[in-house]
Amino acid sequence: MNLIVEKHVPIAMRDDVTLSGDVYRPHDGATHSTVLIRTPYCKDDPAHANTWINILRAVESGWVVVVQDVRGRFRSGGYFVPFANEADDGVDTIHWIRDQPWSDGQVGMVGGSYVGISQWLAAARKPEGLIGIVPAVTADDVHSGWLYEDENVVLGFLAHWISILLASSKLDEESRPRIAALERSVAEGRIRTFHELIEETGDFAPYLQDWRDRSTSLAEPELAGRVEVPAFVIGGWFDIFLPGTVASFVRRRAAGTQHPHDRLLIGPWAHGLMGGWFPARSFGPESSFDGLDPTSLQLRWLEEVRDGRKPTKHPVSVFSMGVDAWRDFSSWPPDNAHRLRLQLHSAEVESTQMSANTLPGAVLESPVPTIGGRTFFPGYKVGANSGPRLLDALGVRNDVQMFVSDPLAEDIEILGTASCRLKVRVDGPTPVVVKLAILGDDDSPEWLCEGSSYCDFDAGSGKPVSVSLGSTAVRLPKGSRLCIYVASSDFPRLEDGPRSSLDILPGDGGPVLELEVLSLA
User: Fold this and answer.
1) Helix (H, G, I), strand (E, B) or coil at 392
2) DSSP strand pairing (130-136 vs 316-320)
3) Residue 466: partners with Cβ closer than 8 Å, 6 or more residues away
4) Three-state DSSP class for 475?
5) 174 and 180 in contact (C-beta within 8 Å)?
6) Could you give the CA distance from residue 498 to residue 489 in angstroms, rounded to a whole number?
7) Where are the alpha helices (DSSP H) in 103-191?
8) pLDDT, tens digit (0-9, with 9 covering 90-100), for 80-106
9) What does pTM read for this prediction?
10) What torsion do the CA atoms of 506, 508, 514, 517 make, to the nearest 10 degrees?
11) Residue 203 phi, psi (nearest 5)
């Protein structure tokens, strides 16, 4: 088929700022529905513009595709403040599309990460003509899903992301060396706190101060509960935004905005790494996002919504690790999942690297290093430090405590959330970081999920703490054991702020894991 490509089309916003968009449409004179992609990462980069949906295939399927640089980025006018203008600008762009002679008035939005949260922001305003959104590897809440984990700043992601944004900004000759120095500082781990990041970026990113103050003026919280159009939510078990991704899907039911066409898809993917392969682990050919044909997957869903077709019987599809296969359910967590409580006991760890003068719970000069998991650091596109890594190195530190479960009495499949309850004693404000791992046949611990809480209370005599570890899907055979690592730091994933000694008290028998599982007996 023939198509028309219109580059750098001016699109006026309500405040007369002009944004730039590229329009790809069938050359047939008819009206068509539109797929809208609003990006801060350059609409003219074909690799990025086609990341989530193949533009030419979409046009061949009868859709118009509009790819737009968001305000203040690349060819669009105005000043870029992350999140601040995406709601109004998204609404205005949808209105502009509906006024075009090639539009049938129906618009769907797709894309991941920042492109995903921009969909939630616009959709919460309920613009006429928006039929559905496909937010991928993102969150619907700027603070709880994007910048913070409980009260802990997710510094590693934040510093790397900001350095990427600034490096691709319109810089003068004087500014380029400063941004290059910032990138080096981030890559080498020299920026250790949110305060240092604010100082290093200076006037390049003045909005960081609002983020540290948790200003709600940038974006409304928990947007998914206010979005009435259907949402096809896509996430990854090793993605930085996994907790926010799952929360955006689940909270729609609680808010009463869940739509019959809502869908959830989660695979063994990390941010920027959607192949199901990591240096330490491969989940097989079926695990690849590309293997699902994402263009057809998303277009079929948008057409299902637009045309009022019957929704799928099983709106939840998750990749279950261990068995390495896709599983379909009618809800998340599955309706027939039940809570399993596992009492954990202390694991005796011996290492010649420990000093005879140090005690468990002490704080070393260097923070506990991040190993694998949900990360977004330099090298993220090759899984340099994300996904299912072995955590053996944590066991040689005297500021990390390990607890192990008894062997499982039956085959189970963890399908849903994991959390850990423990009683802690600290001598000052500090993070409480918990990493959950599967112990292999050789007792090697493989990362499964993680989370953190923040103690800002006087817990000198001990206080119960509950740490959410997020969601996962994994099948474990009878006899398997799980373990946790508990520490007061996790750098560079979390900022290296104030931390104290952290002792885990026996409580009612020690730490307890709570898992949502299906029994397979």
Assistant:
1) helix
2) unpaired
3) 419, 420, 421, 453
4) strand
5) no
6) 9
7) 114-123, 142, 155-167, 175-187
8) 999 999 999 999 999 999 999 999 999
9) 0.95
10) 120
11) -75, -5
Which among 82, 79, 86, 96 has a CA at the least distance from the CA of 17?
Answer: 79
Find out whether 473 and 266 touch, Cβ atoms under 8 Å. yes
Residues 237, 145: Cα–Cα separation, whole Å: 15
Structure tokens given for 65: 């595709």
pLDDT tens, residue by residue, 139-184: 999 988 899 999 999 999 999 999 999 999 988 888 999 999 999 9
Are 278 and 379 contacting, i.e. CB atoms less than 8 angstroms apart?
Answer: no
- Going by C-alpha positions, the residue among 319, 291, 277, 259 that lies closest to residue 473 is 319
| pLDDT tens figures, 381-393 | 888 889 999 999 9
**Residue 143 identity (one-letter amino acid):** H
Q: What is the 3-state secondary structure (H, E, C) of 348-389?
A: CCCCCCCCCCCCCCCCCCCCCECCCECCCCCCHHHCCCCECC
Q: Which residue in the block uniquely carries the two structure tokens 């799928």?
A: 312
Angle among Cα 392, 396, 397 to the nearest 5 degrees reads 120
**HSE-up of 317 (CA within 13 Å, CB side)?**
16
Identify which of 113, 165, 111 has the alpha carbon closest to the alpha carbon of residue 139.
113
Angle between helices 114-123 and 86-98 (to 10 degrees): 70
Confidence of residue 68 (pLDDT cuts 50, 70, 90): very high
SS3 of residue 261 by DSSP: coil
**Structural contact between residues 239 and 228, judged by C-beta atoms closer than 8 angstroms:** no
Distances (CA, A) of 124 to 118, 223, 363: 10, 6, 45
Asked if 517 and 471 touch (Cβ cutoff 8 Å), the reply is no
Instruction: Report the C-alpha gap between 82 and 205 in whole angstroms.
Output: 10
Cα(318)–Cα(265) distance, integer angstroms: 6
DSSP 3-state of 95: helix
What are the helix (H) ranges across 206-293?
A: 208-212, 242-255
